[in-house]
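Limitations

Structures in this collection are predictions, not experimental determinations, and the ligand pose is part of the prediction. Treat each record accordingly. The example that follows, with 2'-O-acetyl adenosine-5-diphosphoribose as the small molecule, is included so readers can see exactly what is and is not provided: the inputs are given verbatim, and the output is the predicted complex.
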Amino acid sequence: MTVTFPSELIERLRAAQSVAILTGAGVSAESGMPTFRDAQTGLWARYDPAELASPAAFRANPVLVWQWYAYRRALAEAAAPNPGHYALAELEQHIPDTTLITQNVDGLHHRAGSRNVVELHGNLTRYRCSDDGAPVEVTIVAKDAPPRCPRCGGLIRPDVVWFGELLPQHAWNMALAATRRCSLFLCIGTSGVVRPAADLPLIAQADGAYTVEINLAPGALAGQLNLHLYGPSGTLLPALVVAAFGERSSIG
Ligand code: OAD
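Predicted complex:
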C-alpha cells in the first residue's frame, strides 16, 4: 500500500532533534493484543475495570485479579511485535533523542528494539508487594493465586497502574520532560481519554511542538492536534519512516 504524507510532516521529521511519542493499545492491536475501548473486542467492553484493575478489586478478590493479569501476560508473551513497533524502534536509530512514552504494559516496544521507553502504566512482567510496594522478583508465575512477598508476607501484585492510582513519579517526570523538549510529538493508537497520559500531546502542542495523531479512526483527540492520519499504525508507521529516511539497507 502506497501512503502519501504531507511534506510538512516529512520535513519536520527529518529536521527533528528531539521526538516524543505516546502510544496506546492500538499499536499492539495488529499483534493480536486486545485494545481497551474498541466496541466488541475491547477489554473494557467485555470486563469491568472496577472488578479487575483497581486496588479495591485486588483487596476484594486477589485471586481473580491475579488470574486476569496472568492471562494478559500469557497473551503478551505469545504475541510478537508488529511492523509499527519495529518502525518506532527504527525511528530511534535516526533520531537518537526519541522518547517512546507508552501506556502499554505488554513490553512489545522493548522486544521490537526500542531503547528509550517510558512505561507510564507499568509492565505485566514486573511485580511488587501490595503492602510495602517494593519490587519482587517472580520467576515462576503461579497461574492460580498471587504468591506472598518473601520479606513481609504481603500479597504480590503486578507492577501496573490501576484505576485510582498515581503514575510512577519517575516515569511521569521523564515523559513530561521529553514532551516539553520535543519539536515533534506523535500520538499513536490511543483513544486519548485516560489522563494524565492524554494531556501530553496537548502540553507538547502548547509548548510549540508539531503534534500528529495516528489512529485507526477519529476519537477524542480529533481536530485538536496539528495533523491527524487515519489508518492502521502497522502500515502507516513503516511507510512514514521510509518516506522520511528511505529504505533500510539491513534488518536487525
Ligand atoms: P483504548 O482501547 O482506549 O484505545 C485504543 C485506540 O487505538 C483507539 O483509539 C483505536 O481507534 C486505536 N486503534 C485500534 N487499532 C489500531 C491500529 N491498528 N492502528 C492504530 N490505531 C488503532 O486504549 P488506550 O488509549 O491505550 O490503562 O487506553 C489507555 C488506558 O486505558 C490503558 O493504558 C489502560 C486503559 O484503562 C490502565 O490500565 C491504567
